[in-house]
Amino acid sequence: RRGEMAKATQLINNEVFRAFATYAAIVLLKMMLMSLITAYFRVTRKAFVNPEDTATFGKGEAAKKFLRTDPDVERVRRGHLNDLENIVPFVGIGLLYALSGPELSTALLHFRIFTGARILHTFAYLIPLPQPGRGLSWAVGYAVTFSMAYNVLKAAWLL
Amino acid sequence: RRGEMAKATQLINNEVFRAFATYAAIVLLKMMLMSLITAYFRVTRKAFVNPEDTATFGKGEAAKKFLRTDPDVERVRRGHLNDLENIVPFVGIGLLYALSGPELSTALLHFRIFTGARILHTFAYLIPLPQPGRGLSWAVGYAVTFSMAYNVLKAAWLL
Amino acid sequence: RRGEMAKATQLINNEVFRAFATYAAIVLLKMMLMSLITAYFRVTRKAFVNPEDTATFGKGEAAKKFLRTDPDVERVRRGHLNDLENIVPFVGIGLLYALSGPELSTALLHFRIFTGARILHTFAYLIPLPQPGRGLSWAVGYAVTFSMAYNVLKAAWLL
């Protein structure tokens, strides 16, 4: 049992893997935060989608008028979906990249730029900043993930 | 070759990793089930979104009337998207957590509560149960993932 | 340090893991490609969702008319969401499967069929091909992921 445990925790002792774990946890927590922001806007804007969510506002027509879309709610939801579309590839490809034996400094560069770009992307989407703010922050994160994928394929290629 | 294979399968011999693999597979299968439920409601409610999907109902106006949204279909789709938003962080953070060397009993507690909460969430969404049933089951899964992320960051922190 | 690095890169020396890394990177890149196709259709069809994205078309009503949905854009977005719903389980379950010690030939069979099916699915969705083209390619990928999940649960089962 002890020996096995030691083997299993080897990965977490590796610096590149520790860096990946740190940044992956941060961007996944950032993505999870979008749920709370959506809930906040749904409650403050009184804009719900499920009839059972408006039951506290009374019955019938009184409650029905809160079953509506709100621009702020929809904006956060788009940001959330964009996170899913971009953070999922980062976590998947990033894990493989971290296990492909890159230099710590190169790996940190990838993880830091991606994380910074996605945090900027969220601000750019929610404030919102004029374009190309959101577009550029999206493209930077995309390019970082692409670079990691290239390195994974170079190291692992077995078709 | 044999030696390498043995090394690669070490992880699956570790009990915490085996527990994670079991629960991650269960929640991912549960998420995949939402596709089948969506398909079931699309067919029984005759509510499709792609014109090519209604071709069996004839041509022109006869088929066009089945290109519509249905409340039951939309409800399952929202449940599916909510799964993506919550099960993706669980799988990503949970893997890092399983590799960070937690006690088996603590890890099992996290995995079991999350899995139970997400199964409850699906029932709460699809029946639907009155609030706060769905809200609470969502919050429990969210809190478990947050707790695992805290443990990952404590064990791995390298910024 | 060197020793640790060697341990961490053991996985990438394992052939099943290398095969998984290759196919996971390919399907994740394919999924990322959907973002570019969406952007391409948004620009060529002039169909945007965020007001700040239409600022280059002028102010007020001149720009507002480009805040609209377009069938081609919506089609790509549905394909993208379907990728998320199916490629996320493949990457999660596939990683656990690759670590559960399968035969290389069996693993390659799973990875290749899934990857082929998802590439076909994208073509079937975007062209679009008549049904059951898209339905079958979806079902094949689904069945492959299910088969891997069965093998993971058989090897890891610890509830």
In whole angstroms, how far apart are the ends of chain A?
A: 36 Å
Number of domains of chain A: 1
Strands of chain A, total number: 0
Name the overall outline of chain A: elongated
The proportion of strand residues of chain A reads under 5%
CATH topology of chain A: Four Helix Bundle (Hemerythrin (Met), subunit A)
What name goes with the CATH superfamily of chain A?
Membrane associated eicosanoid/glutathione metabolism-like domain
Q: Secondary-structure element sequence of chain A?
A: HHHHHHH
- Rounded mean pLDDT of chain A is 93
Computed CA radius of gyration of chain A, to the nearest angstrom: 20 Å
Number of helices of chain A: 7
Multimeric organization: homotrimer
Class by alpha and beta content of chain A? mainly alpha
Helix content of chain A: over 70%
CATH class of chain A: Mainly Alpha
Largest interface: A-B, 35 and 38 residues
> Ranges of chain A with pLDDT <50 over ≥5 residues?
1-8
Report the CATH architecture of chain A.
Answer: Up-down Bundle
Biggest β-sheet description of chain A: none
Keywords (chains A, B, C): Acetylation, Endoplasmic reticulum, Membrane, Mitochondrion, Mitochondrion outer membrane, Transferase, Transmembrane, Transmembrane helix
Subcellular location (chains A, B, C): Endoplasmic reticulum membrane; Mitochondrion outer membrane
Membrane topology (chains A, B, C): Multi-pass membrane protein
Transmembrane segments (chains A, B, C): 20-41, 84-101
